[in-house]
Amino acid sequence: MFSRREFLKNTIKGAAGLALPLTALELITPEMILALKQDSAKTRWVFLIDTYKCVGCGFCVKACKTENEIPYDANVTRTWVERYVVTKDGRLYADSPKGARDGFTTNKIDLGLGNYKDIKKEEINKAFFVPKLCNQCENPPCVQVCPVGATYQTADGVVLVDRKWCIGCGYCIMACPYGVRFFHPVYNTAEKCNFCYHRISKGMKTACVEACPFGARKIGNIKDPNDPVTVTILTERVSVLKSEYGTKPQVYYIGLSEEVR
Amino acid sequence: MKSHLLRPVYVVLGIIAAILIFRMLYVPKDFGVHERGYMYGWYRKGNEQEWKAVSIKYMTTEYCKDCHADKISMITKTPHAVIPCENCHGPAREHPSDPPKLSIDKSRNQCLRCHYPLPYPTSGRANIRGIDPEKHNPDIECAMCHNPHKPGLGG
Fold it and tell me: Would you tell me how many other CB atoms lie within 10 Å of the CB of residue A188?
């Protein structure tokens, strides 16, 4: 026989278990399905990076951290710059000390754990910098895995995180193939680049684009056929990172190399 | 049916009702499916406004021109014209009311971000003349000899 206490316990568990799928159930109206199909938005933000122009000064990272209130000395950042050096003996070295917040002011490649590799000019086959940021994918896996609807995509294509709604489970951080997500050290919620949504929605450019002295970073609206960024993406040879994942990333690169991961 | 058999049913219904009422009160009205559909657009609409309300810190070089026109006209004739003022002086925010003065970073590292010689042929860095910081007048601030707004000598 089971006691009243046990009976009540099991009832609460069972009812809660039954109620959960019930609460998730929403009526799907025809309008919702229509909204899924037609894409009437006038704006779709995209990014264009020219790796030939980047000098690795890291001013974009500095500006991003300040503009978006990411604690300056915490080793997390919404955008960062990677350095790739391929030597004549076919080896690949890559580093991004502090996300390149202070630029690259030494020849020595940071191998981690306090080890450095000094590479002489004569040994280098190719070497370049690759800025990285959120790809604002057309099929964002980070949004799919969020169990509570705290991360989502706006009509203009930017993926945002609702800090009030995020429970900090970290699924999205694991799901992002590009590793752009991290926990905000102050709010302890998922954090990521949002193309400076507060700036682009007021007609300004992102902080990193403004900070770049050499025009290596550009933001544009792919729905506008006259936007110079759109023209470049449609008429020149550009590529994206990890296209094999099917996420349809919307940060386009000029001069990517197979070494870049 | 006897009432003691119905009682547990009431308990179960009561708990379900309580959970649904809690959900109704807790989940805001604007939470639901939006433009990007059920898969990518299930969220609280009000959060978009919260992100748009983040304060703007970097005001761009355009903002400085009314008050520091001398610096701008000086720098525009030099190769440093491409560098935004705020890269070296920090975000203007509401300067000059808040902060009244912007920072002046005279560290050598500030200049070495671009002038440390990295022989990387397919990057823009290869086009900037570098100096070896250990040989080029070490321990003296670059600004002692080079005016950052007019880096060529004699400026």
Answer: 11
> What is the DSSP secondary-structure string of chain B?
--HHHHHHHHHHHHHHHHHHHHHHHHS-TTEEE-TTHHHH-EEETHHHHHHHTSPP----GGGGTTT-HHHHHHHTTSGGGGS-HHHHH---TBTTTBSSS------HHHHHHHHS----TTSGGGGS----TTTSSTTS-GGGTSBTTB-SS--
Compute the 3-state secondary structure of chain A and give helix, strand, coil in percent, each to the nearest 5. 30, 20, 50
Q: In whole angstroms, what is the distance from residue A78 CA to residue A179 CA? A: 10
Q: Which residues contact A23 (CB under 8 A, 6 or more apart)?
A: B19, B20, B23
CA distance B77 to chain A (A): 15
ipTM of the complex: 0.90
Residues in B closer than 8 angstroms to A26, CB to CB, are 32-33
CATH class of A1-79+131-256: alpha beta
Is the four-CA dihedral A211, A217, A222, A225 of positive or negative sign? positive
Tokens representing A209 are 């684009």
Q: Which residue, among B11, B1, B20, B23, has the nearest Cα to A14 in the 3D structure?
A: B11
Place of tokens 């779709």: A44
Q: Where are the domains of chain A?
A: 1-79+131-256
Would an 8 Å CB–CB cutoff place A113 in contact with chain B? no
Q: Out of A54, A129, A198, whose CB is closest to B53? A: A198
Could you tell me how far CA A185 lies from the centroid of its own chain?
A: 17
A130: which strand partners?
Answer: A82
Q: Is the model more confident about A143 or about A41?
A: A143
Give the tens place of pLDDT for each residue, A96-122.
Answer: 999 999 999 999 999 989 899 999 999
Q: Which residues of chain A make contact with B30, given a CB cutoff of 8 A? A: none
Q: What is the pTM of this model?
A: 0.91
Contacts of A121 in chain B (CB under 8 A): 119
